[in-house]
Amino acid sequence: MLYCKECGHQNNSSDRFCSECGQALSQNREASPSLNQEKPLKSKMKWTKKQLIITISSAIAAVLLFVGFQIGSVLTDKDRLIDQFGTALLDGDTKKIVQLLHSDDSRLEITEENVQFLVKHIEENPSYYTYLIDSLKSQSAFLENSDGEFSEDELDEYYHFDHPFYLTKNGTFALIFDHYSINVYPFYINLATNYANTTIFINDEEILTTDEEDVVFEYGPFMPGYYDFKAVYHNDYASLETSESLSLFSVFDQGYFLDLSIFADYITISNDYLSLSTNSQLYINDTAVDYDLDSAEPFGPVTLDGSLTLHAVLDFPWGSVATEPVAIEGDWIDLVMDSPFAEENSEALFHSILHYGVDFAEAFNQGDSSQFTNITESFREELKDEIELLKSYDETWVGEFIKVEIDPNMYVELNENDEYTAYANARFHYDSVYTDSSNEHIETSLDTTDVELALIYNQEENSWSIDSEYTNWYYDPTNSIELTSANLQ
């Protein structure tokens, strides 16, 4: 046997070259020991460069694989994830919390600002932290021991919770390790409000303005948290708002119905002469309002703090009359109108009464009812009968008209024939006497007659005709208008 000096490989004695390294064996033959010499010890095997590279690389790969497995198992450990989440919550580390949370709803934006609500909630409710972390750990144990098939009882035991955080398997890491995440349950709520042009605010941020009345709409998603909702409505007569606060930390709040309806004040407007008017116009702070007073519908919304004044202008066949302004301080407004006549359109009626007083003196002095110029024919017949009755008793009325006092607060009504009848109180002053027709020595004296007159309006002629006269025993002409014959000039 021949041994190669180069690599120590044992070769056959007939070999000329080493079968291992290719070294010539000729020198080995010459130096081969005799049979009776002691057999030399086998030389230590040497590794080639290639063998060394392969061996070292394999060892490094094995170490890296082991280390990588250990790191991967740590990075994807469910309990480590939960512990990091719990620590971040206690430390108020909103940046870390954002990194650890996930949502299956791509519309839900998780930010440091909105996770601050969760930190605040835990600060104010320490027991919620324990409840949250314990439930996540229960879920972790459940996922660890499960085979992916969950019975209803198991789900009830490990996933029956009302907070909006839950542990889920979310793919794999490095194709080996299960990857888990803490998911956030997004909230959607139903908002309702009742006025068009109402602006909705969430935490003082404007989100929309309604374009119709009585709307209900879904809004979201929301992160768990505290939210202040406000509905604001403005018009020319009111600034109104309502607000509600909502805490969204329970899954049972999903689809919560939040009513932001604004409860406003409306007013009912009345006027004694509204039914007699041919048209009407409402004014608030001297600005015309698009509102039909005849509708009897409540008007609003308005504020009742007295900052608004209300009045109306009513049109009658003889002219327009404005009511006195009234501060809006209650839900019932009576637009007081002492008379459906303004100073500028009551002249025709007053002159009709004045004419009647003057004509009375002429007609009774002459005993002739045709002297009345502005009375109805039915009333003329009554006065004619009165004159004839005096004649039948050989009596006569002698005197002259002095003046008349008229109460400007007159009442008007509209009858079934669409005729306007005004009722006016008046006091006529005469220098007169009732005496025998044959009396040659007549002495007159000042006399007054208090009456209530009924006058019918002639729309075509814009004039008033006396239709009746009744004695008024209770007339008090405190605020009366005084007219004499001179006013007819």
Automatic annotation (TrEMBL):
It comes from Alkalihalobacillus trypoxylicola. Pfam families: NTF2_YvbJ, TcaA_2nd, TcaA_3rd_4th, Zn_Ribbon_1. Signal peptide: none annotated. This is Zinc-ribbon domain-containing protein. Residues 78-184 form the TcaA second domain. The chain crosses the membrane at residues 52-75. Residues 3-25 form the Zinc-ribbon domain. Keywords: Membrane, Transmembrane, Transmembrane helix. Residues 265-335 form the TcaA 4th domain. Residues 350-469 form the YvbJ-like NTF2-like domain. One of its GO terms (cellular component) is plasma membrane.
